[in-house]
Design a protein that fits this description.
It holds the Pfam family V-set. One of its GO terms (cellular component) is membrane. The chain has about 1200 residues and is mostly beta strands. The protein has 11 helices and 86 strands. The chain has 8 domains: about 20-140, Immunoglobulins (Immunoglobulin-like, Sandwich), CATH 2.60.40; about 145-275, Immunoglobulins (Immunoglobulin-like, Sandwich), CATH 2.60.40; about 280-405, Immunoglobulin-like (Sandwich); about 440-540, Immunoglobulin-like (Sandwich); about 565-585 and about 595-670, Immunoglobulin-like (Sandwich); about 680-810, Immunoglobulin-like (Sandwich), CATH 2.60.40; about 820-945, Immunoglobulins (Immunoglobulin-like); about 955-995 and about 1020-1100, Immunoglobulin-like (Sandwich). The longest helix is centred in the last third of the chain and has 21 residues, at about 1125-1145. It is flat.
Amino acid sequence: MKCFFPVLSCLAVLGVVSAQWQVTVQEGPLYRTEGSHITIWCNVSGYQGRSVQNFQWSIYLPSAPEREVQIVSTTDSSFPYAIYTQRVRSGKIYVERVQENSALLHITDLQARDVGEYECHTPSPDDQFFGSYSAKMNLVVIPDTLQTTAIPQTLHKVEQDPLELSCEVATETFQHSHLSVSWLRQRGSEKSVEVISLSRDFVLHSSSEYAQRQSLGEVRLDKLGRTTFRLTVFHLQPSDQGEFYCEATEWIQDPDGSWYAMTRKRSEGTVVNVQPTDKEFAVRLETEKRLYTVGEPAEFRCILEAQSIPDRYFAISWAFNSSLIASVGPNAVPVLNSEFAHREARGQLKVAKESDSVFVLKIYHLRQEDSGKYNCRVTEQEKTVTGKFIDKESKRPKNIPIIVLPLKSSISMEVASNASVILEGENLHFSCSIRTAGRQQGRFSVIWQLVDRQNRRSNIMWLDRDGTVQPGASYWERSSFGGVQMEQVQPNSFILGIFNSRKEDEGQYECHVTEWVRAVDGEWQIVGERRASTPVSITALETGFAVTAISRTPGVTYSESFDLQCIIKPHYPARVPVSVTWRFQPVGTVEFHDLVTFTRDGGVQWGDRSSSFRTRTAIEKAESSNNVRLSISRASDTEAGKYQCVAELWRKNYNNTWTRLAERTSNLLEIRVLQPVTKLQVSKSKRTLTLVENRPIQLNCSVKSQTSQNSHFAVLWYVHKPSDADGKLILKTTHNSAFEYGTYAEEEGLRGRLQFERHVSGGLFSLTVQRAEVSDSGSYYCHVEEWLLSPNYAWYKLAEEVSGRTEVTVKQPDSRLKLSQAQGNLSVLETQQVQLECTVLNRTSTASQLVVEWFVWKPNQPEQETVARLSREATFHYGEQAAKNNLKGRLHLESPSLGVYRLFIQNVAVQDSGTYNCRVEEWLSSPSGMWYKRAEDTSGQTAVTVMRPDAALQVDTVVPNTTVAEKAAFQLDCSIVSRSSQDSHFAVAWYSLRTKAAGQRGSPGLQEEEEEGEEEEEDPAERTALLSVGPDAVFGPEGGPWEGRLRFQRLSPLLYRLTVLQASPRDTGNYSCRVEEWLPSPQKEWYRLTEEESAPIGIRVLDTSSTLQSMICSNDALFYFIFFYPFPIFGILIITILLVRFKSRNSSKNSDGKNGVPLLWIKEPHLNYSPTCLEPPVLSIHPGAID
């Protein structure tokens, strides 16, 4: 090791040692959310040779941490494994080469299965390996739980309105993460503008467009609770219009200390429309003149023209030759610079706000150096929530240059008045304006004089150079009451006021001005004098004074109103008082008396005999004239007569005393009061109304015109029927809305079914007869009486009229009852259930009640009979057929749905067969509550056939023959192979069959038919009953020969055994058993279904008295000769016979048995065994064994 480093250094110097290859990858673990786009960088250093390196990415999944799964490569397109091939080909996973030795792995749509350990491998182009060629890092994929929600809406705002929007931001990430929330504004296709945002480090900031407003508190972002972020914009501007939305970003800190935005979500937007107000404004600068003399005052007026000025904030700045003179903020406090501040302190200059729109700069004593350019600048400002003002738009007019000239002595003057012709009592204003060519050098003294029509001159008032005002001798008293005033409103403007002028004030008004200047010694000297005058003409008040009484309604009707106008001429102003008195002469009298007086001060005085007029009379004086209107309402006979008005003209003196100038009396007005002419008209239209009973009858009575809006009506409703001569009164409603029922309503019981209504329109009356009945048919009409309220508050009938008739026909509803006509056939077995369905397809009314009856018609019966009946009260009744056929208890009714009725016959019997149908009656309720049958219908027929079960009884036909010894017992078994029903009972009888002819051999049996087609011959066998057992297990009598020797056994339900004891040779013969099958009917009555007889059983009883048997049994040689040796011979013989018989059967049409019916048992040889010895059996063939 001591020599390693020196050697290595030497090799490095010689260039033998190569640089070490090093691969670095982004430090992990990295936490990223599902669905996000992730990049992982990988760098290679220490390489030599080629500069462009290749990169291969693999993953080690948590489920197999030792297994490499290849993802993507920059060189090999087949590098990815199958699970990544599709994503690589679609571009969802790719490698971006940043530099020759640096690359980024992109996964555009991160999935949960992408979690694992990622390896970046750089293949070496050299054969030698030195360094690290791969690096690994871990990636953890977590669910994206960030949620950003806001309520989408559209808001319409006006400029300067506030805006508040809320956004809910929540995340459920278990990792430690930070949230940043931003509010942005999107306008069309423009790029989104950040309004305000809260960074992940809890720092608020805005874009440049909103930065200033945020700093002033105009834009706020507040967090409410854990998840709510509220944006507030206090004063909206038109530029704020657009879509506002909230965007939240979830950040996580990677191991290298950098913050990464895992996921970003935006909410739905709120569209904000901002209606701009008219914020435009204009500025102009005015001054009286541009040329001044030293010492003269100058005034500059900066006039602002804008809307809603009081609600806005403006700042004004004055400038002289581009130098600031003063500035006035929204608080109207002027701030002047140092030079002009001194002149303002000495009273030589003033900056003021004259009004909201006028700002004034006044220079009281101009200097020659004040010549130059003057201007003003107006800046609109916005007040923030913190009270600060920020500048917005600024405007200034053109400069106004002025020139200040040195002092010159030259004046001119002008006299003006407010009017040259006035009405007596009006005010006179005179102005005397002095104009100087330059700066005013001294002072003025002014004398006002009046020259009347006789050219007499009198001094009104004068003002000396020191500003003292004195009245003339003849105006001293008026001046003391303020009737004459003089004022110097400006240094060169003097005003004379004559208030409440009189006729003697008419003449020529002259202003005499003397200019005074101070000499060097301080004395005042007259520079010059000037005179100017103006004429004034005054019209006396009583000139043309006249009064006229008029009325547009000389004739009125009861309860109407009429107006009387007292017109005063000429038209006097409101300051000239005129008192007006209305006088009245009732019809039939000769004297007038005062009704009411409208005094000169606006008061109202009623006369002594006007008590009847006060509540119905209104007196009104026009605001624009002295005309007085007398309005009388609810006219009656007491208001008929002659009317006259008297007017007095008054003048108020300067000492507040009143002088009556003139009095005028009007012409006479005669008012006639008449009764009103009726205008009552009732609709005469005829109607025909047809409706179904139980519906309402709507009757209308329409008043098409009426005499007065205040008319009341009494309405009488009548009905006329063909059987009556006149109409009958149904209902009467009086003019005061009282109800009276007529005789027809009482007789027919209509009180509870009548409904009267007066509609809002006032002229329409309705009578409704609820729940109409057929008896309500008829001709209806109304009788209308018009009533009016007299002026004395008493009702009187003015007119009456009858309406047109409405022909009403009430009928029963049309029958719509319909049943299903489907035909059917049913075949069922006894004891089963039959379902009969009655379906109502349609009905007249859903409120109707149905009666359902079922009928049955049976063959050989003259008419059908009732099976069952369901009443409309849903009561079930049995018919006469139910009693006959014992149907009670077996009938069941159900209605599974509306209109469907099912009748079930349970446990049916044969006698229930027949043709069934149903009949339905539909009952309706009349309006009076009585039920009546409206319709009926019959359904289709259903043929029901009830059958008994098919006979399946079979008795065992294979029965062996038996040989028994005398005195022994033999058994006769009767085995039932099958039966028709499990409920069957059996009657069993045993018979002995003996032949009637003695010449026949063997036991009697069934005989074959001799020829084909021949009728069946009578059975030649004689039957003798041994024993019979009935289906009820009752035994019959025993046969005579066997009495006392029989024993009966029922070994099983289908096996019966009869044992014959003490057999004797007489018992030899054929035996059979006959079985009868009995079934219970549905009425529990037993009937015989069928019967079957078994095959004959051959019984041979040996007689023990014979010695032949003992001889054979005692001799062995004889025994074998008789029984053993013949046996094979007989067997061959039997086989031969059977073969011949078999061939003959195939060639014959007829089979064994009678009439071609095959035998029910097989006939075979009977083998008899010896009952007395145990020796080989003896083969014996009995008659009937073989055909």
